[in-house]
Inverse folding.
């Protein structure tokens, strides 16, 4: 039960104020790309574990960017921190290995579900055994990519704790299920976001291929690095939509509260 937990995420005295939208970035060099593409005016940066949280403004609105991170436990601890700081909508930006032969290095993937082969998710009981992203965030990511005429694949990601134990048997098993790729964080992030009742969506770039059952790394290829830049340049459009949606939700909530506190009384026109 949640009330039995001894250690729980909390806001620290020196933690920065952040807005309702956050971006979680796996790799440090992608953080630099995203900060540059958004022209974020950083107000402060704070160390969280081995990562850094940047609190800044984008189009005069508060936003948070946090990273780098590696693996499900690390990513989840950062997600937990963002939630207690008040972040409600999160874009995850990372890499994945392709396990389907039709999915190549440099391709862009939008994850609509994830299969857990990691150990963190089991500690967060949720009703859905295969939690996915927020439908609203998924739609925003897809819409933003389409508006920028960027091709992408949508599908399931397999998340593992052990990249050096991605066996042929496992790859073939997940291939048959139609899973597109493998990473180390996503299933846990989807699970914990569901548990904490925050929204999350994911944008991934294929960094290597395993579909032929022989590893083909692409980390230093021009196609992969070009796709990283292309994907990073879509992040501003995604965040604009998320921030706009958050404003609309806040306005609706305020309007709803005003009607609740002052019930409407029909005027007698007779």
């Amino acid at each position: 039960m949640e009330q039995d937990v001894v250690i729980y995420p909390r806001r620290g005295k020196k933690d920065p104020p952040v807005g309702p939208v956050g971006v979680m970035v796996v790799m440090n060099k992608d953080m630099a790309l995203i900060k540059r593409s958004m022209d974020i005016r950083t107000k402060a940066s704070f160390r969280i574990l081995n990562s850094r949280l940047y609190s800044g403004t984008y189009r005069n609105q508060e936003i948070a960017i946090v990273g780098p991170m590696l693996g499900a436990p690390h990513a989840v601890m950062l997600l937990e921190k963002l939630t207690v700081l008040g972040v409600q909508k999160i874009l995850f930006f990372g890499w994945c290995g392709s396990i389907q032969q039709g999915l190549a290095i440099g391709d862009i993937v939008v994850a609509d579900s994830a299969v857990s082969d990691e150990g963190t998710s089991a500690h967060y009981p949720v009703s859905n055994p295969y939690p996915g992203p927020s439908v609203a965030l998924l739609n925003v990511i897809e819409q933003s990519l389409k508006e920028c005429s960027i091709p992408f694949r949508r599908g399931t990601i397999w998340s593992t704790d052990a990249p050096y134990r991605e066996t042929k048997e496992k790859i073939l098993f997940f291939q048959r299920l139609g899973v597109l790729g493998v990473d180390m964080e996503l299933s846990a992030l989807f699970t914990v976001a569901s548990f904490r009742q925050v929204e999350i969506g994911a944008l991934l770039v294929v960094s290597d291929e395993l579909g032929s059952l022989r590893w083909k790394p692409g980390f230093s290829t021009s196609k992969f690095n070009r796709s990283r830049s292309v994907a990073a340049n879509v992040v501003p459009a995604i965040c604009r939509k998320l921030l706009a949606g958050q404003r609309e939700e806040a306005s609706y909530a305020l309007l709803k509260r005003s009607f609740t506190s002052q019930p409407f009384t029909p005027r007698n026109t007779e």
Observations:
- The domain at 18-261 is CATH 3.40.50.1580 (Rossmann fold).
- The chain has seven helices and ten strands.
- Residues 250-255 have pLDDT under 50 and may be disordered.
